[in-house]
């Protein structure tokens, strides 16, 4: 696929994916590469610009991450963010030191004043709030650079060498806390890098379909369809490209939310593909009987899923391609190149051992989650599938705390369905990032009618977030919580108490297990 490319060079920053997402939101294709990527490899990608990420190190230390100085001789614009800014200054002859007093260290929201004659701040207000996070200080900026932004504590919040297209900011324009941060990134892309803005989902769909057809030819493709957003969009894209050469195996493990299995089948029943639904609820529950430890649940479910999938694959016979719904964050987090492995993903390296296939095909591996949703809409998938909330691979197995039974799962399904319905009816579905119910293993005394009960406590979880790396608990209006609680207790047998989780991430995670 031929697009203008921007490279996000990662120095261990926590916002590396967020920077890349912001670039793509501006209609420009980008890839995240570790700072250890050889210069020849970066040059071969013919980038129109580089963005250097932040990072936890101090650039003046001996073991700090660095780049080949020749990167600044390629004639390609560079925007350094936080550590990336200091690295550029250090490499090009400036001096970076530890801040000597608290005033020079800046963290959090900071009033910042911009030189709007600088291309980076073209068309923006002369002041605004930026999100700072640095304890080091540029004592001397390199020759050829001018000061482009300042704060009360720091005279060189942003630096610029307009002639060479080098810019550095000591704050984070990619986070929502920085006012007009996205416009600053857009200015770098369009005013400095002269981007065309040729990255759209319509174009991606067209070129991806053509690429899949060329690769697959007359071969057969097999996909394990989980019913989640990624695998569903992958299935739709493959079906668009190769039609009945595709077989999708939907392993229904009985751990999905209410009616989701039927919704997945309905969504694909009119598509030109071979759709196989396997009812495996009984065997999964048998394997999980008596298991309470969440990590054991995950391992059992993952292993059993592979077994069921392999059994169905053997019935189909030899296939040429095994398709996977791997997306770009999976690739980055699993360690692209020499990048640090944040967490392993089942789509990256966790392949069935006994499925007879020649090659793997991963048509979504360049896309972020929001782009996958956009592609799903381009392909005509129903909105209830495309906008489906994040759902853990083990499903409801880790939203039932303690041991699993069909009765507990059914109880949780009904309660969760009421919760989701009321959130939707209140017009909050698009405001809350994720919301779900958890059946705890705590039982308590209650009074219903004229009798005492001893039933389960249900926890409700809802968070607002832009990136799922951090999240705040959602302030659901009390009347809505009241309706949810009243309905669940009255309509779902086995639950007599409702709790609302008001913990943010961090310190908590979004899921309970």
Question: What does this entry show, briefly?
Answer:
The chain is an alpha/beta fold.
Topology:
Layout: E1 5-10, H1 16-25, E2 29-34, H2 39-44, E3 49-52, E4 78-81, H3 83-91, E5 95-98, E6 106-114, E7 127-134, E8 136-140, E9 146-151, E10 158-161, E11 166-169, H4 181-192, H5 201-216, E12 221-225, H6 229-242, E13 246-252, H7 260-268, E14 274-279, H8 281-288, H9 294-316, E15 321-323, H10 328-333, E16 359-361, H11 369-379, H12 383-386, H13 406-425, E17 434-448, E18 451-464, E19 472-473, H14 478-491, E20 495-500
Parallel strand pairs: 1-2, 1-3, 3-4, 4-11, 12-13, 12-15, 13-14, 15-16, 18-20
Antiparallel strand pairs: 5-8, 6-7, 6-9, 9-10, 10-11, 17-18, 18-19
Helix pairs in contact: 5-6, 5-11, 6-11, 13-14
Average of the residue pLDDT scores: 89
The low-confidence runs, each spanning 5 or more residues with pLDDT under 50, are 336-351
- What share of residues is helical? 25-40%
Shape: globular
The strands making up the biggest β-sheet line up spatially as 2-1-3-4-11-10-9-6-7
Radius of gyration based on Cα positions: 26 Å
| Sheet with the most strands, sense and barrel status | 9 strands, mixed
Q: Beta-sheet strand percentage?
A: 15-25%
Please, how many helices? 14
Structure classification: alpha/beta
The rounded distance between the terminal residues' Cα atoms is: 40 Å
Total strands: the figure is 20
């Amino acid at each position: 696929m031929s697009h203008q490319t921007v490279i996000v060079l990662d120095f261990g920053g926590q916002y590396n994916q967020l920077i890349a997402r912001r670039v793509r939101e501006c209609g420009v294709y980008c890839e995240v590469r570790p700072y250890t990527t050889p210069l020849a490899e970066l040059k071969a990608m013919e980038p129109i610009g580089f963005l250097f990420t932040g990072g936890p190190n101090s650039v003046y230390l001996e073991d700090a991450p660095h780049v080949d100085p020749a990167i600044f001789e390629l004639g390609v614009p560079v925007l350094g963010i936080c550590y990336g800014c200091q690295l550029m200054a250090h490499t090009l002859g400036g001096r970076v030191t530890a801040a000597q007093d608290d005033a020079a260290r800046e963290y959090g929201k900071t009033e910042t004043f911009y030189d709007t004659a600088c291309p980076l701040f073209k068309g923006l207000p002369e002041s605004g709030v930026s999100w700072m996070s640095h304890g080091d200080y540029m004592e001397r900026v390199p020759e050829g650079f001018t000061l482009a932004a300042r704060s009360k504590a720091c005279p060189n919040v942003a630096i610029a060498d307009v002639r060479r297209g080098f810019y550095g900011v000591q704050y984070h324009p990619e986070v929502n806390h920085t006012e007009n941060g996205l416009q600053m990134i857009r200015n770098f892309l369009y005013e400095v890098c002269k981007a065309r803005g040729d990255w759209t989902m319509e174009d991606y769909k067209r070129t991806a379909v053509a690429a899949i057809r060329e690769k697959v030819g007359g071969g057969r493709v097999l996909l394990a369809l989980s019913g989640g957003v990624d695998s569903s969009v992958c299935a739709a894209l493959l079906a668009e490209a190769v039609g009945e050469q595709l077989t999708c195996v939907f392993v229904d493990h009985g751990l999905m939310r209410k009616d989701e299995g039927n919704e997945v089948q309905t969504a694909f029943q009119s598509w030109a593909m071979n759709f196989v639904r396997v009812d495996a609820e009984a065997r999964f529950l048998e394997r999980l009987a008596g298991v309470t430890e969440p990590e054991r649940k995950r391992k059992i479910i993952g292993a059993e899923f592979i077994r069921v999938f392999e059994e169905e694959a053997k019935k189909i016979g030899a296939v040429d391609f095994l398709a996977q719904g791997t997306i770009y964050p999976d690739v980055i987090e699993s360690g692209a190149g020499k990048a640090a492995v944040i967490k392993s993903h089942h789509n990256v390296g966790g392949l069935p051992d006994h499925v007879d296939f020649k090659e793997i095909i991963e048509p979504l591996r360049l896309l972020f989650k929001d782009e996958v949703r956009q592609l799903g809409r381009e392909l005509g998938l129903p909105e209830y599938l495309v906008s489906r909330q994040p759902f853990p691979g083990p499903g409801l197995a880790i939203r039932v705390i303690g041991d699993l039974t069909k009765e507990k799962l059914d109880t949780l399904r009904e309660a969760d369905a009421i919760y989701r319905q009321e959130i939707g009816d209140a017009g909050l579905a698009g405001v809350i990032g994720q919301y779900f119910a958890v059946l705890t293993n705590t039982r308590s005394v209650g009074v219903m009618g004229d009798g005492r009960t001893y039933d389960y406590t249900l926890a409700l979880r809802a968070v607002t977030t832009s990136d799922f790396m951090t999240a705040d608990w959602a302030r659901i209006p009390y009347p809505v919580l009241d309706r949810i609680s009243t309905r669940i207790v009255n309509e779902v047998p086995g639950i007599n108490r409702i709790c609302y989780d008001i913990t943010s991430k961090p310190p908590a995670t979004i899921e309970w297990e």
